[in-house]
Amino acid sequence: MRVFHLSAECYPIAKVGGLADVVGALPKYQNEAGLNAAVVMPFYNRKFVHENQFDLVFQGTTLLGTRRIYFEIIKEKTNKLGFELFMIKIPGLLDRENIYSYPDERDQFLAFQICFLDWINWSGQTPDIVHCHDHHAGLVPFLMYHSALYRRLAHIPTVFTIHNGQYHGAFGWGELSKLPEVDFYKTGMLEWSGGINPLASAVKCCWKFTTVSPNYLRELTWSSNGLEYLFYLERFKGYGIVNGIDTEVWNTATDPMLPAKFTSTTVTKGKQKNKEILCERFGLAADKPLIAFIGRLVVEKGADLLPEAIERSLRTHGDSVNFLLLGAGDAETENALQHLKTLFPQNCNVFIGYDEALAHLIYAGADFLLMPSRVEPCGLNQLYAIRYGTVPIVRSTGGLKDTVIDFGDDGGYGIRFEQANADDIYASINRAVVVYQDSKKMLQLRKKMMALDFSWQQSAQEYINLYESLTS
Q: Is 84 helix (H, G, I), strand (E, B) or coil?
């Protein structure tokens, strides 16, 4: 079965969030299960493309409205990522360093989608499944089924995965002329709330859509930035499949980014050694519980709640708990956390920015990982933490609710709280400080977590089952 994954991001080429991690892992595991899966993404002028060799497999021109553009399809030569990687390069449009935030971003992703369809159409390819990820590829199902240019592709099933339903990529009807010739009577399939909405269009037009956790599928019907009624109407077309993690990358026994490798049988000694190295780097004492946060410092992640909750905890517990935060985002939150660092220099430190090696070390060395998210479609950080024996402290939302069971319940191993507010975070931190004092309980939680299977094998098979239901 031939599958094309279309995405704006793919790890390790270009990553902003969890979308890249999923697209960089799912096709590999699908191929291991017997599929022929490939990734198609925009070209970015980044380290990966300079360090690897590519073949030119196609070149052509197409129209973006009245603008004729030249494009190339290049393919990484060795399939070193475990799948075929194709990149669409357009001089002056898709040849830049960054992924998002250009003033002509809409044109970039419109061109990306049109060039993909032109390529497979003109080259005579007939994939079994076209799998689109987020709104950057959301117009592909509509164009396949309602444009005369792509009539040859109209029988091919499409699957659309929503990694974050808050972002729609919507734009005005004045841009309709940039699309290829379409059936005017079908343009209602593009519309939502008075404009062209790629996310809504994909949900309407695709054969099936998926979310990255079952609970998030339900949440979209009451929280999706204006698409709630659409998700209610289309709910029987949706499937919730929890993301997996790449257990070859996230492996405490082989992780090259860890100074001290360990397994579930050496977890106490291994985590303590990594914790000592981590704490020495950031001026913290390694004999206290270390609670970490890794992620974007934005409202969606609940980061704005952290300064108040952490300050209350430090004033309550004094010198008996430490905090380490890694991330960047809202300037106000960054400043508030930096201020905490000056107030409590022995117990709180902050790294503004992102560092992949440091993130791995934090997962391995921290005792708890805090995720107070307001919105978390799946979440991968809690899965990395679980894999590395670090107890997740999460709000009961989206995929966090699907993947973390409170240790107070049968079979539990994490800490969950209900409301996105400083009070609930503070109370959960208190629970963490208490359980940390019970070394026997902590060891039980760590061993239980490290025995859990959140690998991609199971999730990849669920996608394969979905594909087979559409092609049978």
A: strand
**Residue 16 predicted with pLDDT over 90:** no
Tell whether 236 and 294 lie within a shared domain.
no
> Which residue range is the domain that position 335 belongs to?
264-453
Q: What digits encode the pLDDT tens for the residues 31-55? A: 999 999 999 999 999 999 999 999 9
**In a shared domain, residues 38 and 173:** yes
List Cβ neighbours of 365 (8 Å cut-off, separation of 6 or more). Answer: 271, 274, 275, 276, 277, 278, 279, 290
Q: pTM for the whole thing? A: 0.90
- Whether 250 maps to a domain, the answer reads no
Strands of the sheet with 208-211, listed across from one edge: 54-64, 67-76, 84-89, 36-42, 2-6, 129-133, 158-162, 208-211, 238-240
Is 15 within any annotated ligand binding site? yes
Do 366 and 436 share a domain, yes or no? yes
What is the identity of the amino acid at 382? Q
- CATH code for the domain of 378: 3.40.50.2000
Q: Rounded distance, CA 85 to CA 79, Å?
A: 7
Tokens of 421: 């507010």
